[in-house]
């Protein structure tokens, strides 16, 4: 009786362990909106901080884009700039395009410039203070809550790599036509199976 009980527990623990591993492997790892303020369409991320108590953001927990200190982060935005918004952070905030210069020693503007006057401002800042490697937890943030509004962001590059901002699939249908890549899956089948649990 005692042995049967122990065996049962061991089997249950083994099943739990296998289930837990499968669940971790299946979690999509692409871009996602942290709340209802952010949407994505055709390469443009729209961040509406209105009504969001702590602002809004579009994030990727495991962005596999190489980056080293001294590299550039560039992006374009349309809308107001100020109070830390808009900005891009990498490595969980180790570097941040808006407060990259606490000592005022660089001429790189966190609000960028719009020399062609089309309303899209281009920001280009130099990465510092990170561990050379990959971007990792990356975010596009609008949280100037004292002056909420809509900011659009597009054409993000990190270390010279153009970063796809397509969101992670949220259904097996979205795995098709290459959509699996945005979720960090290696192929369509792996993506589809993650929704068949
Ligand atoms: Ca929020
Ligand atoms: Ca422009």
Task: Report on this structure.
The protein is of the alpha+beta class. The protein has a single domain, classed as Jelly Rolls. 16% of the residues lie in helices and 32% in strands. The protein contains two helices and eleven strands, in the order H-E-E-E-E-E-E-E-E-E-E-E-H. Strands 2, 3, 5, 8, 10 and 11 form a six-stranded antiparallel sheet that branches. The longest helix is centred in the first third of the chain and has 25 residues. The chain is globular. The chain starts with a helix and ends with a helix. It binds calcium ion (2 copies). One calcium ion binds next to loops.
What is the beta-strand fraction?
25-35%
Mean pLDDT, all residues:
86
The main β sheet shows up as: 6 strands, antiparallel
* CATH C-level category: Mainly Beta
Tally of distinct domains: 1
Number of helices: 2
The percent range for helix content is 10-25%
Secondary-structure class: alpha+beta
Instruction: List the ions, cofactors and other small molecules found in this model.
Output: calcium ion
The ordered string of helix (H) and strand (E) elements is: HEEEEEEEEEEEH
Number of strands: 11
Principal-axis shape equals: globular
CATH architecture: Sandwich
Low-confidence stretches: 1-26
CATH topology: Jelly Rolls
Rg over alpha carbons: 21 Å
End-to-end gap: 34 Å
């Amino acid at each position: 009786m005692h042995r049967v009980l122990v065996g049962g527990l061991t089997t249950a623990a083994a099943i739990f362990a296998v289930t837990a591993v499968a669940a971790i492997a299946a979690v999509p790892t692409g871009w996602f909106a942290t709340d209802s303020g952010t949407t994505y369409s055709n390469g443009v991320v729209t961040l509406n901080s209105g009504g969001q108590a702590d602002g809004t953001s579009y994030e990727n927990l495991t962005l596999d884009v190489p980056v080293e200190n001294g590299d550039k982060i560039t992006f374009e935005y349309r809308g107001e700039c100020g109070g830390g918004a808009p900005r891009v952070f990498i490595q969980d905030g180790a570097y941040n395009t808006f407060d990259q210069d606490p000592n005022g020693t660089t001429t790189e503007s966190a609000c960028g410039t719009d020399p062609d006057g089309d309303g899209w401002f281009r920001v280009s800042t130099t990465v510092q203070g990170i561990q050379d490697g990959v971007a990792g937890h990356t975010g596009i943030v609008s949280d100037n809550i004292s002056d909420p509004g809509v900011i659009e962001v597009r054409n993000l590059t990190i270390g010279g790599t153009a970063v796809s901002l397509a969101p992670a699939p949220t259904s097996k249908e979205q795995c098709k036509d290459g959509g699996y890549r945005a979720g960090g899956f290696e192929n369509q089948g792996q993506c589809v199976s993650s929704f068949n649990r």
